[in-house]
C-alpha cells in the first residue's frame, strides 16, 4: 500500500558522468559495482586496446584506443564492412596526438557489422575488433520521476517511477539503480536490475524516517553487458518526518549546575532534513498549548512536570516522545562518580555506583566550560551498566562538566556534576587583586578573585603571593587554594607592589595584574604622639592658671594654687615686730561739777607667760608665716577694767 508523496528536493545539476574514451579504457577490464564517493563508470567497454560503439540507436560511431609506447600511435583508422559490403574499407585519418575519432553514422548501413583496426605507415598496430552496429550501442540516461511514494507502515519503503531513454520498442534495455543516504560517500546497488519491457518502478526498502536520500540509474543493451550508458541526473528526496527518539535536558533543572536556565534538547532522528517540531509541557497538572519550533531545543517553563515532542506531518504510527521533568530525592541518585583518562586515547571513562532506586536507564552528559546550553552531549545506558566510555576528542587543559543521572518513569535522579580535565596544564593567567578596608588601620588586607576554569586548565593546588617594597628584593609566600583574602601586617612602609600566581599539579602560571600600594610610616606616629600629649597638657595647665589668677573663678584659686601664691603677702617695711605693742588710751578730762563717781580698784591680774609670747609673736611679716595664738587656741580673751557707775 502506498501513502503520501514526498516533496521532491531540488535536483542537483547533472553530473558529468560521460568519460572520455581514453579514461573509459582504464576501467574496461572489470565490472565494478560501486566505489566510495563516485558512481561506477558509465561505459567500461570490452577488453582490448581499441573499442568502438554507437551513441543511441541512430548516433555516430565513436572509437577510442590506448596509446602503447612499444606500438606507437595510429595515424589512420581502418573500418571494413562484413555484412552488407564485403571487403569495403573506410580509412579515417587520425589527428596527431589524438586517441579518438568520431565517424558520422551516414557512412554506415544500419545493422552492419564491421572490422576496425589502427595502422601506422600502412602497418596494423593491433588486431582488428568486431563491431555490430545493431547491438553495440550506448543508451542515454533514464529519467527519474521527482514524485516519490512512501509506504504507510513500518519498515519504510520508497517507490520511484522512471522511464527509459528513447529506444526502438522492440529492443530491450537493462537498467540498474544506485542509492545512498545523504552525507554518505558510497553508493548501494539496488537488486535486481530492471528492464524497460515490462517497465517496473524502483523500490528502495529499509529507509529511515526524516532522512534525505539520493538515487541515480543507467541502462545498457540487453546483449551488451559491459557497455553502460550515461548516468541519470541524481534525484534527491526526503522521507517522512519523525518524532525524536532521544530527548534530554540541559541546564539547571534540578539545581546541580548553578543558576542557569533549562533547555529541552533532542537529537534529530534523520539526516540532511529540516523538520519542524511541536512541543508540549505540563505545568501544575495543566497541559500547555503546544508550540511549534525548529530543531532541536526549547526553553523549559518553570515548574514543568513533563515534556513531549513530536514532528509536524509525521507518520501515523509514530508516538510522541515524552520525558518526566520531576526531580526526585538525592538518595536514589548515582554516587561515587569517577572520571578517568585512558592512556593513548582522547576519550574519558566514567564509572559510578547505583543509588537506592531502580532506574530504567542512566544518562551521562558532558559539556565544556563556557559552552552554550545547546552544545550538550549525552549518551544513554541500560540500568545495569555502571560505566560509560565518552566518545569524542577531549582536549588537554579543557575543563569538562560531567553529570550522571538516573532516569525512571517518575522523574530524574541527578548526581552532583564533576569537573574533569583529560590532562592538566599550567594556568594561563593569575588572580586579580584588590585592597579591602585596613584592619587595623595601616595594615593592608588583600582579596582576590578565582581564575576562570578555562584559564586555570587544571585543579587548583595553591596560590603564591609576592610583594616588593621599593628597591628591596621581592619575597613570596604560598597561600591555600581555599583562601580568598589575607592580611599583611609586616609590610615595610613606603611604596609596595603585590602580585599573585595560581598553580596546578602541572606547574605555576604567570602572575596576575599587579596591585600598587603606598603604606604610611607607623613608627612616626609613635614618635609624635608623646610630644602632642605634652603640649596639650601644657595648654590645659596654662589655661587653668589663667582662670585661677584672673579672678573670674575665685574658687579655683584655693584648689589650683598653693597657699603661698593665693594668700596676701605683707610688706616687711610695715612690720611692727621691732616695736612694743602699746594700746592707745584716751586722755582724762579736767574736773568739773560732775556727779561723784565711786571708783573701785580692781586688782589687776598678773600677766602670764603666754602673754609675753603673744607680744613676741605679734609681728607683721612673721605673722604671715606662723599661726596666730588664737588659731592655736592658746589665749583666751583678756579682761578689761570694768567701770561702775
What does this entry look like structurally?
The strands form ten sheets. Strands 4, 5, 7, 8 and 9 form a five-stranded antiparallel sheet that branches. Strands 13, 14, 15, 17 and 18 form a five-stranded antiparallel sheet that branches. Strands 21, 22, 23, 25 and 26 form a five-stranded antiparallel sheet that branches. The chain is elongated, with a radius of gyration of 61 Å. By secondary structure, it is mainly beta. Helix content is 10%, strand content 35%.
The percentage helix is under 10%
What about the largest sheet?
5 strands, antiparallel
Structural class: mainly beta
Average the pLDDT over all residues and give the rounded result.
Answer: 79
End-to-end Cα distance: 175 Å
Counting DSSP H or I runs of 4 or more residues, the number of helices is 7
Percent in strands:
35-45%
Total beta strands? 42
Global morphology? elongated
Amino acid at each position: 500500500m502506498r501513502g503520501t508523496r514526498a516533496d521532491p528536493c531540488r535536483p542537483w545539476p547533472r553530473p558529468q558522468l560521460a568519460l572520455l574514451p581514453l579514461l573509459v579504457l582504464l576501467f574496461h577490464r572489470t565490472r565494478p559495482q560501486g566505489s566510495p564517493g563516485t558512481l561506477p563508470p558509465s561505459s567500461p567497454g570490452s577488453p582490448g586496446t581499441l573499442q568502438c560503439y554507437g551513441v543511441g540507436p541512430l548516433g555516430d560511431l565513436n572509437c577510442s584506443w590506448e596509446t602503447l609506447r612499444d606500438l606507437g600511435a595510429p595515424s589512420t583508422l581502418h573500418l571494413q564492412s562484413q555484412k552488407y559490403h564485403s571487403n569495403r574499407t573506410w580509412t579515417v585519418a587520425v589527428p596527431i596526438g589524438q586517441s579518438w575519432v568520431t565517424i558520422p553514422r551516414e557512412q554506415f548501413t544500419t545493422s552492419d557489422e564491421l572490422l576496425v583496426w589502427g595502422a601506422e605507415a600502412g602497418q596494423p598496430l593491433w588486431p582488428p575488433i568486431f563491431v555490430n552496429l545493431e547491438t553495440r550501442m550506448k543508451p542515454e540516461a533514464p529519467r527519474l520521476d521527482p514524485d516519490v511514494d512512501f509506504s504507510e507502515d513500518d519498515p519504510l519503503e520508497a517507490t520511484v517511477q522512471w522511464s527509459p531513454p528513447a529506444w526502438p520498442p522492440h529492443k530491450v534495455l537493462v537498467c540498474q539503480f544506485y542509492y545512498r543516504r545523504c552525507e554518505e560517500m558510497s553508493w548501494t546497488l539496488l537488486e535486481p536490475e530492471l528492464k524497460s519491457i515490462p517497465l517496473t518502478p524502483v523500490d528502495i526498502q529499509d529507509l529511515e524516517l526524516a532522512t534525505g536520500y539520493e538515487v541515480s540509474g543507467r541502462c545498457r543493451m540487453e546483449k551488451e553487458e559491459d557497455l553502460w550508458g550515461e548516468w541519470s541526473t541524481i534525484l534527491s528526496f526526503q522521507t517522512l518526518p519523525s518524532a525524536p527518539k532521544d530527548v534530554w535536558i540541559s541546564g539547571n533543572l534540578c539545581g546541580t549546575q548553578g543558576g542557569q536556565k533549562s533547555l529541552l534538547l533532542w537529537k534529530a532522528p534523520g539526516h540532511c532534513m529540516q523538520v519542524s517540531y511541536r512541543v508540549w509541557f505540563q505545568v501544575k497538572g495543566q497541559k500547555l498549548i503546544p508550540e511549534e519550533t525548529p530543531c532541536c531545543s526549547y526553553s523549559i517553563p518553570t515548574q514543568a512536570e513533563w515534556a513531549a515532542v513530536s514532528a509536524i506531518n509525521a507518520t501515523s504510527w509514530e508516538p510522541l516522545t515524552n520525558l518526566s521533568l520531576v526531580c526526585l530525592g538525592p538518595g536514589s541518585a548515582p554516587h561515587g562518580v569517577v572520571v578517568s583518562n585512558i592512556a593513548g586515547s582522547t576519550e574519558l571513562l566514567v564509572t559510578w555506583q547505583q543509588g537506592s532506586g531502580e532506574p530504567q536507564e542512566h544518562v551521562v552528559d558532558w559539556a565544556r566550560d563556557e559552552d552554550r546550553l545547546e552544545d550538550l552531549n549525552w549518551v544513554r545506558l541500560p540500568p545495569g551498566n555502571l560505566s560509560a566510555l565518552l566518545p569524542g576528542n577531549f582536549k588537554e587543559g579543557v575543563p569538562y562538566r560531567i553529570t550522571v543521572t538516573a532516569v525512571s518513569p517518575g522523574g530524574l535522579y541527578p548526581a552532583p556534576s564533576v569537573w574533569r580535565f583529560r590532562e592538566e596544564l599550567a594556568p594561563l593567567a593569575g588572580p586579580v587583586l584588590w585592597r579591602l578596608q585596613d584592619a587595623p588601620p595601616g595594615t593592608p588586607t588583600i582579596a582576590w578573585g578565582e581564575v576562570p576554569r578555562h584559564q586555570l586548565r587544571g585543579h587548583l593546588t595553591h596560590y603564591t603571593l609576592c610583594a616588593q617594597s621599593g628597591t628591596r628584593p621581592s619575597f613570596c609566600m604560598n597561600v591555600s587554594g581555599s583562601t580568598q583574602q589575607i592580611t599583611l601586617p609586616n609590610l615595610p612602609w613606603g611604596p609596595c607592589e603585590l602580585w599573585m600566581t595560581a598553580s596546578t599539579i602541572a606547574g605555576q602560571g604567570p602572575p596576575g595584574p599587579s596591585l600598587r600600594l603606598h603604606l604610611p610610616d607607623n613608627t612616626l606616629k609613635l614618635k609624635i604622639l608623646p610630644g602632642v600629649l605634652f603640649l596639650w597638657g601644657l595648654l590645659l595647665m596654662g589655661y587653668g592658671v589663667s582662670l585661677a589668677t584672673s579672678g573670674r573663678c575665685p574658687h579655683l584659686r584655693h584648689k589650683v594654687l598653693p597657699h603661698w601664691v593665693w594668700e596676701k603677702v605683707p610688706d616687711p617695711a610695715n612690720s611692727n615686730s621691732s616695736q612694743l605693742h602699746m594700746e592707745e588710751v584716751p586722755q582724762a578730762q579736767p574736773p568739773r561739777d560732775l556727779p561723784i563717781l565711786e571708783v573701785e580698784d580692781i586688782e589687776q591680774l598678773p600677766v602670764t607667760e603666754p602673754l609675753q609670747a603673744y607680744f613676741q609673736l605679734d609681728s607683721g611679716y612673721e605673722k604671715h608665716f606662723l599661726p596666730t595664738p588664737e588659731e592655736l587656741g592658746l589665749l583666751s580673751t583678756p579682761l578689761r577694767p570694768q567701770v561702775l557707775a
